[in-house]
Design goal:
Blueprint lengths: L6 H11 L3 E6 L1 E10 L13 E11 H11 L4 E8 L3 H12 L3 E7 L6 E8 L2 E8 L7 H16 L5 E5 L8 H13 L3 E5 L13 E2 L3 H8 L14 H14 L3 E5 L5 E4 L7 E3 L12 H14 L4 H15 L10 H10 L4
Parallel strand pairs: 1-4, 1-8, 2-6, 4-5, 8-9, 9-10, 10-11
Antiparallel strand pairs: 2-3, 6-7, 11-12, 12-13
Helix pairs in contact: 1-10, 2-8, 4-5, 6-7, 8-9, 9-10
Bound molecules: adenosine-5'-triphosphate and magnesium ion (MG).
Amino acid sequence: MNSAFSLKRLFQLFAASSKLRIAVIGDLMLDTYITGSSSRLSQEAPVPVLHVRERSIRLGGAANVVRNLLALSPSAKISAFGVVGADEPGQKLKSLLENANADVCGIVVDPGRPTIEKQRVIANGQQVVRMDFENTAPIPEKTRLRLMDKLSSMLKDNLLDAVIVEDYAKGLIGQEMLDHITSSARKYGVFTSLDPNPRNPVRSKGFSLMTPNRSEAFALAGIYCSDPVENVAEDNALRSVADNILSQWAPDHLLITLGPQGMALFSADAPVPFVIPTVAREVFDVSGAGDTVISAYTLYHAAGATDQEAAVISNQAAGIVVAKSGTATTDTAELTKSFAEAGCR
Ligand SMILES: Nc1ncnc2c1ncn2[C@@H]1O[C@H](COP(=O)(O)OP(=O)(O)OP(=O)(O)O)[C@@H](O)[C@H]1O
Ligand SMILES: [Mg+2]
């Protein structure tokens, strides 16, 4: 499949993706790293004393999907939708997004909850503790309506080509919100993708795409997670899980990401999945690869790629980011190089 993919086709899709408008709605997070050195224990408690040398912040959660989309297509219009608190992390999150060139008009400030922040403390290169600031109670109805108002008017005014929903089960995504998004996006012919979280007891029919990883897919289907089978097409448990999700959620396509096994694309009308092995030659850090997958698939599908083409590109993009350290992104130059190395001409 990869070598059948021409670079000309790839460039066509890159060009079309530069004009796209995509909304990302989900749990926006701020990742904070406090780094330093430690050479002694505290007298107050048996804990290391950290001499702080650096503080750094990064976009996390749904905001990392925004970052991935903008890395792939810097001139696309990417709008972030979500909730932050009336606090300093919320301001930082917004300004990081603005610096990345994202549209932040869809971010609602709710003074009743903190901005979701994950603060890591790293001593001598090793993470010592992570502190999570969050309130995972469902967001108040008033906040949800404010968010939905903005998203609905963008859909109605034909200002969006796709909507990505990133659910980290932090209280933002609920049943009414999902139903609202799928029904109005269908009405206006807008592509919708969902990275679902099985901890959230919701179910909504009619997404264009869902992208759970293997264990999330088993949890969504309520089936005990068995070991992967070497030949993905013969993984009968995975097939049952896919059939269950296809019937309960009725997405047009279901892309189950399989870590080192790559990914499998299922749809109700295809008797066998389209299986794509990973292209990663070296693996350094797999965190955030799922964000890259949903970003690339949605972007290139909205740019005119078929589902199989969008899956292949997203798998190639994931193969690039897992070879980098931290929650990484990739761009069109790296994608071109990677496809060329895979034999595409
Ligand atoms: N260990 C690995 N070796 C090779 N490729 C990998 C590995 N892990 C991930 N990948 C690539 O990244 C894609 C997405 O990975 P994975 O299935 O782990 O998603 P995920 O669990 O949603 O990731 P995350 O939630 O951390 O972002 C896979 O489809 C594959 O292409
Ligand atoms: Mg994931």
